[in-house]
Predict the structure.
Amino acid sequence: MLTPDAALERLDHLLSRAKAAGADAADAVYFGEASTGIGVRLGALEEIGRSEGEEIGLRLFLGDRSAQVSVSDLSPQALAEAVERAVAMAREATPDAYAGLAPADRLASGPFPDFDLHDPAVEALGADRLKAMALEAEDAARAVPGITSSEGGSASAGLSVSALATSHGFRGAARGTSVSASAVVIAGDGDGRQRDYDWHSARHLADLESLSDIGRRAGERTVERLNPARAPTGTMPVLFDSRVSASLIGHLLGAITGAAIARKTSFLIDKADAQLFDSAIQVHDDPHRLRGLRSRAFDGEGLPTAPRRIIADGRLT
């Protein structure tokens, strides 16, 4: 996997090849990732996996025609062939007057903050330590009264590097780590068996929740599923579990993306400033949180990111 500086150098080379081949404009992105994962079940090692991969994507424009290609072979020959293929595809593409790079005067400018997304302690995690973490989470879940079996505990650690460069001057790169742990257990017997889980992930090892807490919650969630009772018919408040409420926010965000609005496939068309929720509801997007799982200084086109209020006092902004 390339370092951030090496990734930018490879992208600069690719963009220069694209310009030499006749492209009027182009942008290129690099993404590399390496991860190790351990799975245990009933106190014994069940699986271990190691993955590593990297990819470069190129988008180029010939007038108002464009094409996009990606390659996992980063050799000079493979990149040259990718440029040739993209140019040939662009010549046959349908013209689109609205396609193009983001305006140069709106691009983010460095130096960019790293938001403390990289933790050497996570990068140094080996298989033995991950196995111990997985076992601790599973043991805590199995210790909850009522748990009868386990589908396993797991722990993983990863490192990623991303970079973006454009033919009109933008260059930016970032790297980050991630670590996670989970447990899945079973309660009850026969047809009354129930299963549930809990997990947590973080950028820094120090921010990962206690493995015993993760396991305990998995066990308690599972036991709470036993012997469900039928609720009476009537009008009553509904409380959404945090794992469900996050998906509700996902539907909201999907409905206000530019693509959904432009294609008129959204249920929120013409709902700008509409009162969608109770006035107590606030939804904030903050891509600048320190150690945030999705924090970043610029987006996929090189535009600067910024905190914003998506729902303010229940209204769609």
